[in-house]
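pinning this so it doesn't scroll away 📌
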Amino acid sequence: MQALRQLVLEITHDFGNLRQALIHAGAVVLFSAVAGGMTAGYAADPDLAVPPGYATLPPGAADEIAAVAQEIDRTEAAALVLAGNSALDPYQKITTLGKLLLFDKTLSVNRNEACVFCHMPQTGWTGPVSALNATTSAYPGSVRTRFSQRKPQAYGYATLAPTLYFDQNKQDFVGGNFWDMRASGIRLGSPAAEQAEGPPVNPAEMGFADPACAVARLSLSPYRPLFEAVWGAAAFDIQWPPGVEQICSRPGPPSPGDPFPVHLSAGDRGRASAAFDQIGMAMRAYEASPDINAFSSKYDAVRAGSATFSALERRGYALFDGKARCNECHRDSGESPLFTDFTADNLGVPRNSALPYYAEDQPDAAGYAVNRLGVRYVDDGVGAFLAGPDNPNRKWAEFADSYRGKFQASSLRNVDQRPRPDFVKAYMHNGYFKSLKQVVHFYNTRDVLARCKPNDPGEKLTCWPAPEQPANVNTTQMGHLGLSNADEDAIVAFLKTLTDGYEPPAP
């Protein structure tokens, strides 16, 4: 293995035809494997399961996951072929590179989890498995029995979030990525690039114990030459220690006494860190492309004068801008509205007991307990970020208590995008809601309907459970809107017009 690795390294340092040949060879091999039904993704994964103490995997989930894996491989194969085109301009190079990185399963500890597994286009760049959305809400990581505490947040339009800052006039935080805003963008100047660096080293997601592992795996990739074409020939000029693949095949987190288990010289660590940042920046470049930010919804067509709302959609839009007060956080102003103001709020969303996270209180086979608090865990969102080690500005810590339970207001664009009418999408940070109707009904009646009793059959219809985090709940803009059932349906109809890919009906 070491000899093969060295040979690949030597070949890929050539700037001539061998570089393009390697890319084309990789694409042909990968495409042949997919076409021949030999995809080594989720379908063949013997460890696809849920944590001990949780229910079994939802019916149909394995088949859906296998289909998503095959789609990921097909997309990657096509991108590899494109990467071999010597006529690509700089924009095409970096966006193609970013796409390959997002669709690459080898950038996870067990070589089985691409970033896009949780963020596929057919669902607006969020979770693509209906059976998981309807049950667990969160998605399994590269270590299949590990789940995080939140549903996948959508990539769409996230690159347009500003670097996190505290607005003195509004007395509010604005920007960043992730539900809790912790990808501030302060270090790299891009929240999306910093967000992209999170999952590879999250033990419950892609699972590397060291960010250098992503760089080491990439150094053996068939699209390494494209990375070097974008970032320079010395990008992988790193002397890897013996056994680096064995080190990188052990799931994180690293031990406290050895936080960077890939032992590199100071110079090599600096180069590996730079390459890891470049991975994030390339992903951000693709996430900023029209593939993900298309601005092609019916709403956009109406603004352009090439389509008209139905009477129900028009009524919903008027409510959205008026009585329902939606646009106070999901702004519809500006040349190309993003339907978010990039602030955070505690909506009083109930706890989602279906999250496997609550059952992850015991060490797994690798000795890691994802959630040692078990059922006692409360997700404090932005407040936890501001109080924790990821906060880059010590002055912000004083706001931690006032932001407990707050989560970022995501863009509403593509909020209803789905591959088929019966596909279930999960909503809010914990996936508690399973339809837009439930979301709008909650905004309308949270403070009007009775509090649910345990196992109440009227939950989400005639009663609501208590908020997961009762501190800082927004009681001024929602909870008692006085909307009728028909009003709620009209707002849902309008939200459906925000789905990209609109095509006017045939005459």
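📌 and the second one:
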Amino acid sequence: MFISLKSDPSRAVIDTTPLLILVSDWIDRERALDSATRALRREQTRSALVFVARCMEGIYHASESPAGLEIIFSIEMLCEFLQSASLRAYDSNVGHDWRHHGADEVTWTNHHNFTSKSLVHLRLSEDRWCPNEVASLSLQFPGSGLYFISNLERPGAAKDHSKCTEFKCFAYQLVNSTYKTQHTPEGCICRFVHDDADKVRQILYSGDFPVISYLETGGKEVLNVVDAGSVQEYVAISHVWSDGLGNLQANALPGCQIRRLRNLSAAALKYAGVSTKTPPFFWVDTICCPPEDGEAQDIAISRMRETYEKATCVLVLDSWLLPQTMAGHSGADILVRIACSGWNRRL
């Protein structure tokens, strides 16, 4: 049943497609059992998965693996699939959450067994993923998710992660003395647009937080700073400072970047179903959070959760997604659609 000759009549391969039907039927049968029998079967299934998990752990820790990494990984993915089916069959946390490992728990590839000998670990390392990213991903995704990620183009491929460890990424650390705010496109030399720093502090001290809109009137570029409580809709923008959208010296950004943020915010509000005839309001820490250490900065940071929660939508400017295209949509368009999907309400 699991042997196929479809791709090459002269070469038999294992095909797990029939497993979907078999497991679906098995789940239905297990759910139909009486409670006592189901409890017994649940423990039997759990014991079997724990046994296999311990065997796989022993294989990983052996000095020489007796089987190819591809075979080991395929066994782990099969067990991950069966564990997921067990959860559905018994409505119980068979093996507990895969993100937490204990003596009697079942994990597959991503956590305790996720060593330098893992196929997925090797794939990510060879593609020069940051060790800190790999460590973080291994705690967030099961083995199947990690394998999917290992087939993607690595984000931030231009970054040098050779000095990074699983505990810290040095590639995204800022060096104050050399940090430069970036223009868009590269090579632009437009002037910086500053906000009213005193008004930003005044709003923060009053118990609110500032949002801004960008106006071009009479040949002048103006950042209009108001308290968030006075506007009905605004966009909160999240970004990574190492991508060049920060400013360590002042609440200011190049005019080209401000226009870009305004246009992205307008698009985000449009997708969110908000129609406005005036320039959109948005929040970005570079403008709305005082750069100097002090009480005003502390207040702004303490209100960041509230800032994102109250936003109509949250726009995450990911430097990897922005240049991508999907089904004819630009990366910026994709990010705007994601921003309006409602996830910001789940902070």
